[in-house]
Design brief:
There is one protein chain. Helix content is 94%, strand content 0%. The longest helix has 45 residues. It is an all-alpha fold. The protein is built from one helix and no strands. Keywords: Signal. This is Entericidin.
């Protein structure tokens, strides 16, 4: 393989890893918000 092909493959691999890490971060953030909202609804219902 030529050095150019190897460099392109490494760039594609690095890019896909970065996208996966960003996706995990966004999913965790959304999960945290969902848990917060659910907890607030449960506590509000118990207070009534």
């Amino acid at each position: 393989m030529s050095k150019t092909v190897i460099a392109v493959l490494i760039l594609i691999f690095a890019s896909s890893c970065a996208n996966t890490a960003r996706g995990f971060r966004e999913d965790s953030t959304q999960t945290g918000h969902a848990v917060d909202r659910a907890t607030h609804r449960v506590l509000s219902a118990g207070a009534q």
